[in-house]
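Quick question, first post here. What does this chain look like in 3D?
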Amino acid sequence: MTFEELQKTTGITFKDPELLKLAFIHRSHLNEAKHIHTSNERLEFLGDSVLSLLTSHFLYRTYPEYPEGTLTNIRSSLVKTTSLSDISKSLGLGDLLFLSHGEESSGGRTNQSLLADVFEAFLGAIYLDRGIETAEQFLAKYLFPNTAGIIATKSYIDYKSLLQELIQQDSRVSPTYHVVKSEGPDHARMFWVEAIAEGRVLGSGSGKSKQEAEQGAALAALEKLGKI
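> Answer (accepted):
Ran it through. Tokens below.
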């Protein structure tokens, strides 16, 4: 993947090529490239805000039947790290990252957190270079279509909160989550978690992060208890 190929794939031609390049400069690269003094962190900060605004606007406009709380949960699922990193992978954004040798050797190009960060930095650069309409078109092409699947599978529901409310109806004890095991390299780790209350295993789940595995365990517990 090259910057030219990325622009061709997305259909977004940058007026300022240096701004595009800046979106891919990870802070670790500054330690080895003494002539470069700025990383993509400021663009990431801006892109995060643009992402929140445009996603909120899309959901508000598209789903008038949903209350604020539901829209918030859907937005959280839509823009979570795994979602953004998957889009980055599909676009080959990791290939364009400027990393230190250490970050490179530790799997930085496939690290979910780094990929999500560069997605936001790239979005911030699109906003600055081409404006908010182009940024919205980019999200409409690569992010917003995921919404239908999130709603169809109800993956936006906070199962941990639902389980806690259910358990606390009968006792003051809150469920806890225990990591049974984890496998794989840091950039592609899998976690297995059990949801436990009063010494009983209520359900088990797995995922690419502890949070995802905990949600899976809570869902399994709710299904086992016949509450979902």
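The mean pLDDT is 92.
Strands lie at 176-183, 190-197, 200-207.
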